Q: What sequence folds into this?
C-alpha cells in the first residue's frame, strides 16, 4: 500500500494514523477477532457463572499483574523508540526497541511459567469451558506477542544498520502500532479473565 | 503553559505510562481483595477501557488524527465494553 513521505505526512497528519495504512487495516481485523473472543467469553460465562468464578480463582493474578506491567513498559519503550527516530537519534531508537523486545520476552517467560504450572496440574483445553476459553484466549494473544517481538527485533536490527532516520521511518511506526495493539488487547484480557467475576 | 511545563519536566508519554501502571495496580488490588458486585465489575471494566483509550490516544498517536481513524479504537473499546458489560449485567 502507498506510504506517505514526510512532507505529505506533515500535511495529512490529521487524516491518517502513524505507519502504513495496510498495517492499520490488519490491526482492525485483529481487533475484530479479539472482540468476538471477548464477547464469546462473556456470554458463555452467563450460562456457567459458578464454574467460571470457581476456576478463575485458580489463576495467578500476580503473574498477570507482572505480565501487564511488562507489556505496558514494552509499549512505553516503543513509544520512546518512535520519538527518538523522529528526532533522528537512530542509536537511541535501536536501544529503546531492544528494551521493548526484552520486556516482550519477559512476558513470554512469565506466561510460559504459568502455562507450565497449569499443564503440570493436568489442565487441558478439554478440562472445562473456563479453561478452554482461558487457554485459547491467552495462547492466541501469546502468539501475537511472539510476532510482535519478532517485528520489534527486525526493526531494531534495521535501525542499527541505518535504514531509518527522521525523514523515513514508516516501518518503525507500523511495527509500533502493531505492538500497541497487542498491549491494548491484553489490557482488556487481564481484567476480563483474571479479575472480573 | 501546562503542556510546556509537563514537557519540560516529563514527556507526556511518560506521564501516561505512570497513569497506566497506577490503574493496573488498582485493577490487580481489586482482584486480590476479592471485591465483588456489579459496581466493582463495572469499575474494573471502566478502568480497562480508560487504559485502552490512553494507549490509543497517546501511544498509538490517534489523538492528532481526525475522522474515522481518530475514533477507531474508541469505537472498538465501546463495542467490547458494551458487550462484556451487558453479559455481566445479565448474568446477575
A:
Amino acid at each position: 500500500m502507498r506510504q506517505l513521505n514526510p512532507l505529505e505526512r506533515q500535511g495529512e497528519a490529521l487524516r491518517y494514523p502513524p505507519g502504513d495504512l495496510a498495517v492499520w487495516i490488519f490491526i482492525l481485523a485483529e481487533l475484530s477477532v479479539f472482540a468476538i473472543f471477548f464477547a464469546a467469553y462473556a456470554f458463555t460465562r452467563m450460562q456457567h457463572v459458578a464454574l467460571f468464578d470457581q476456576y478463575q480463582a485458580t489463576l495467578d493474578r500476580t503473574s498477570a499483574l507482572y505480565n501487564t506491567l511488562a507489556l505496558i513498559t514494552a509499549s512505553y519503550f516503543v513509544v520512546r523508540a518512535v520519538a527518538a527516530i523522529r528526532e533522528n537519534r537512530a542509536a537511541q531508537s535501536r536501544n529503546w526497541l531492544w528494551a521493548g523486545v526484552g520486556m516482550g520476552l519477559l512476558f513470554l517467560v512469565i506466561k510460559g511459567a504459568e502455562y507450565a504450572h497449569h499443564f503440570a496440574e493436568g489442565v487441558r483445553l478439554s478440562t472445562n469451558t473456563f479453561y478452554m476459553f482461558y487457554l485459547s484466549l491467552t495462547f492466541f494473544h501469546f502468539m501475537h506477542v511472539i510476532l510482535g517481538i519478532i517485528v520489534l527485533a527486525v526493526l531494531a536490527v534495521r535501525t542499527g544498520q541505518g535504514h531509518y532516520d527522521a525523514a523515513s521511518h514508516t516501518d518503525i511506526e507500523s511495527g509500533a502500532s502493531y505492538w500497541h495493539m497487542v498491549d491494548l488487547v491484553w489490557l482488556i484480557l487481564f481484567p476480563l479473565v483474571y479479575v472480573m467475576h | 503553559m501546562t503542556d510546556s511545563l509537563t514537557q519540560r519536566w516529563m514527556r507526556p508519554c511518560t506521564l501516561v505510562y505512570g497513569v497506566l501502571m497506577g490503574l493496573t495496580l488498582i485493577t490487580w488490588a481489586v482482584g486480590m481483595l476479592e471485591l465483588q458486585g456489579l459496581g466493582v465489575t463495572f469499575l474494573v471494566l471502566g478502568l480497562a477501557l480508560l487504559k485502552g483509550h490512553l494507549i490509543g490516544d497517546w501511544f498509538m498517536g490517534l489523538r492528532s488524527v481526525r475522522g474515522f481513524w481518530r475514533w477507531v479504537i474508541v469505537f472498538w473499546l465501546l463495542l467490547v465494553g458494551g458487550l462484556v458489560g451487558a453479559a455481566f449485567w445479565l448474568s446477575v
Remarks:
- Chain B has one domain: 2-90.
- The radius of gyration of chain B is 16 Å.
- Helices of chain B lie at 2-9, 12-32, 38-59, 68-90.
